[in-house]
Amino acid sequence: MQELHDAPLAPLTTFRLGGPASRLVTATTDDEVIATVREADATGTPLLLIGGGSNLLIGDKGFDGTALCIATTGFHLDGTSLELAAGEVWTDAVARTVEAGLAGIECLSGIPGSAGATPIQNVGAYGQEVSSTITEVVVYDRRADEVVTLPNAECGFSYRHSRFKGEPSRYVVLRVRFELEDAGGQSAPIKYAETARALGVEPGDRVPAATARETVLKLRAGKGMVLDPEDHDTWSAGSFFTNPVLTTPEYETFIGRVRERLGDDVKPPAYPAGEGHTKTSAAWLIDRAGFVKGYGTGPARISTKHTLALTNRGGATTEDLLALAREVVAGVRDAFGVTLVNEPVTVGVAI
């Protein structure tokens, strides 16, 4: 276990933003993780958990407390059952399951961050979500001071949300267990229209899992969402805003605003999101509100490849990025009456 004081946190995030932590502990075993958390709780020290840093926006003043970097390792595959330590690099783990000929998470390739973060956010992309394959999550329950195993049904999964995200100061993810599918090297049925088009198949078809993975990586790279230290479009948290889920009355009001602004013939993206709810596209809203790719003049700008990504062009501060985020939120609200919600976790700051 490594311990540093007045330690820079920006290098531990994909934004490359944020001030230092009073204390930074890097834990490589579950026992070290638990011991550090217990110590912080016993002394009343503020605690910040860091995995891959791909969903974290830290304030310029940094963090006055203990930052715990979870660097545990462990990839255990038994047939179609997979267990990952929280610190495992997610996209590497996905690649290994595809190499093993298993299906279920191949369309989640290229997503930066650690395995332990995936259930917290219920990570999803290109028609797959981890909640569809997670069977159990092993956590340290800070309130009960014990390690517990929560089955999928008790994780409270919903769109980009979970029990763990809802109670961020209670649970520390230690291990995540998945049940994958042996489809003879084929992928799970392709659900996402963009992926199907890129593959030249119909939704519901299967393709070789390796082909699905390679296609998703190309799609993500084209949007600046595969990490590349030389590409400032990837100095981001990927999608900065979640896709809005609107009630029926909210959606009808939204459609009225679209007609007023863009005309009767314009139809925004709409997807069923449970009874009485419709999901629309945050990227569509941002673009139609006038925030196009590359928008901005300062060191924080919208990605040149994807309107959902806010990026550090080098030399930006967290406040620079927050100013851009607030401008986008206000512009979309004024244009369409919809308030965007940020996806990254903010530390010491608010949108």
Describe the structure.
With 351 residues, the chain is α+β, with helices and mostly antiparallel strands. It has 9 helices and 20 strands. The strands form 7 sheets. It has a 5-stranded antiparallel β-sheet with strand order 6-7-13-11-12. It is globular and about 60 Å long.
Strand order of the largest sheet: 6-7-13-11-12
User: How helical, in percent, are the residues?
Assistant: 25-40%
The averaged pLDDT comes out at 97
Report the sheet with the most strands, covering strand number, pairing sense and barrel closure. Answer: 5 strands, antiparallel
- Order of helices and strands, N to C? EEHEEEEEHEHEEEEHEEHHEHEEHEEHE
Portion in strands:
15-25%
Rg over C-alpha atoms, rounded to the nearest angstrom: 20 Å
User: What sort of overall outline do the alpha carbons produce when their principal axes are compared?
Assistant: globular
Euclidean distance between termini CA atoms:
34 Å
State the total count of DSSP E strands.
Answer: 20
Number of helices: 9
The parts where pLDDT drops under 50 for at least 5 residues are none
Structural class: alpha+beta
